[in-house]
């Protein structure tokens, strides 16, 4: 008989058991070492069930299809196309520049994992019943998320795109002073001579865009107190869709590099790690499955608390 955890998270667990990266790496190898001129030609050959590194994929072509546009970037290595977007300057953990093929592979795998883990997160987050991402520090919902004790943070920030601001009917702080700060600025923004996070929750227009600030005890206005569910789940902000399992194939640094044409571009470091946020109940329940997913994807799993 299946355990309650396996039944509750069945859809997400099934995805964790069959990560996409082993297939991506195989397709990359077939493309770069074979006669195919396009990645589409490679995918056309992968119509039969496939056993790979102990994993069974029933229809590899169908599984890879949603990622084809990202995988087509490999075609630049054969001179068949130009990159859709320029990639950053990528270095190893020893601060040594990576070769072009390695850099491109890391860049593509990071984007593919971003997409796959967002999908897996949606499968795991709903059944979890957790609202920890929807509340400020020390809210009445903390116990539902398995979090106990006073948090050190004064507030939590939910970054918003301009198009997402109207999802919330709240007071707005939009001034020259707010737009000269970020939520993390030191000293912090003062509103009526009081730190912004000491006020009621509100929408703030910062130097780097809008965000919803949830101070201590606050709850997102779109979280239903009756059902403990998001009332705008289908159109929730993009940041709310982000997984609590983060791929760190690459990590952005504070450095900049100069291309041959003089343009300055960001520097990323190849980490080949995956961070799972321990605060999240499904991460705690599925630690073994998440760790196995990371290792099958060629990544080192790291479990770490976010809210303290």
Would you write up a description of this structure?
The chain is an alpha/beta fold and 308 residues long. The protein contains 9 helices and 12 strands. The chain has helices at residues 4-8, 10-16, 21-33, 39-44, 60-64, 68-71, 100-128, 281-285, 287-296; strands at residues 50-52, 55-57, 89-91, 155-160, 172-173, 190-191, 194-195, 202-206, 209-215, 245-258, 264-277, 300-304. Strand 6 and strand 7 form a beta hairpin. Helix 2 packs antiparallel against helix 7 (100-128). The radius of gyration is 22 Å and the shape is globular. The mean pLDDT is 90.
Helix-strand topology string: HHHHEEHHEHEEEEEEEEHHE
Shape call: globular
Structural class: alpha/beta
The domain tally reads: 2
Question: Unreliable stretches, pLDDT < 50, 5 or more residues?
Answer: none
Query: What does the largest sheet look like?
Result: 4 strands, mixed
Average pLDDT across residues? Answer: 90
Please give a quick description of this structure:
The protein has 308 residues and is of the alpha/beta class. It has two domains: 190 residues, no CATH class; 97 residues, no CATH class. The strands form four sheets. Strands 3, 10, 11 and 12 form a four-stranded mixed beta sheet that branches. Strands 4-9-8-5 form a four-stranded mixed beta sheet, with no helix packed on it. It has a two-stranded antiparallel ribbon with strand order 1-2.
Describe the secondary-structure layout:
Blueprint: H1 4-8, H2 10-16, H3 21-33, H4 39-44, E1 50-52, E2 55-57, H5 60-64, H6 68-71, E3 89-91, H7 100-128, E4 155-160, E5 172-173, E6 190-191, E7 194-195, E8 202-206, E9 209-215, E10 245-258, E11 264-277, H8 281-285, H9 287-296, E12 300-304
Parallel strand pairs: 3-11, 5-8, 11-12
Antiparallel strand pairs: 1-2, 4-9, 6-7, 8-9, 10-11
